[in-house]
Structure formats: C-alpha cells, structure tokens
Amino acid sequence: MIQKIEHIAIIVSDMDKSIEFYTEILGFTVRLRGSGLKREMAFLYLEAQPQIEIELIRDLYPIEKYNEVGLVNHLAFTVNDLAEAINYYGEKGIRFISTEPKPTLEGGRMILFHGPNGELLQFVERA
Question: pLDDT tens track of the chain, all 127 residues?
C-alpha cells in the first residue's frame, strides 16, 4: 500500500543552475548528489517536510528530446500568504505567468511560474 509521496523527478539541462534555483530561491536543501555512467542526479528536500523530495535528473548523453509538458504537468508548493510569496520570490527573479493569482476549486488562490529548465511550478494558498 502507498504510504507517502517519495519524490517528484524533474529532467534538467544544467544541474548547478537547477540546484541553485531550488536551494537559493526556493529554500530546499540538497540531501544527495551524484552521478553514474549515464545520469547525474540530486535529491532535495524542505526542512519542514523532509520525507518528500524533488529528484533532479540530468542525462549525460540525452538520446531524445523531452516533451516540455511531460507526463507530470506541474509541481505545486503550498504558501501561507500568496501575495507575500509573489512579492518575495518576484524580488528573487521569478517571473510569474500571469499578473494576478487565479482561484482554485477549493476557494484558495494559485499562481504559476517556470523553473530554470522550463518546468511548470505553482504556489498555492489554501482557502
């Protein structure tokens, strides 16, 4: 039986730039970084939720072009105050896709933006 979300994998083109974005801008910590013959990988977590990780994967010898949309549509992060998050991360260089947050089905608000590899990310403020 499923007990928890383990990690969400994101294909990246520049591991250093990606780690810098997730650690310096979004506040993640690198738990493990390494490489094999075909891939370089890093696992990152948030202090408040260390049991769920983001896995960054960089293929050393990509053999095909990755679909920009991919099978995983986006990675969402909960924030307490969306307006505060927009201001804070906007000052760190994040450019949001829309100028205004959109409503969620549960009565909250959300806003989308892209990570350094074009991955679709979302901040969600619960109702």
Answer: 557 777 898 988 899 999 999 999 999 999 999 998 888 999 999 999 999 999 998 888 876 666 655 556 689 899 999 999 999 999 999 999 999 999 998 899 999 999 998 888 999 998 8
- Inter-residue contact 74 to 120 (CB < 8 Å): yes
49 and 78 inside one domain = no
The pTM of the full predicted model, rounded to 2 decimals, is 0.80
Distance CA 56, CA 49 (A): 17
State the CB neighbour count (10 A cutoff) for residue 11: 19
Give the 3-state secondary structure of residue 56.
Answer: strand
Tell me if 4 is assigned to some domain: yes
According to DSSP H, which parts of 1-127 are helical? 15-20, 82-91
* Structural domain count of the chain: 2
End residue of a domain, out of 61, 80, 105: 61
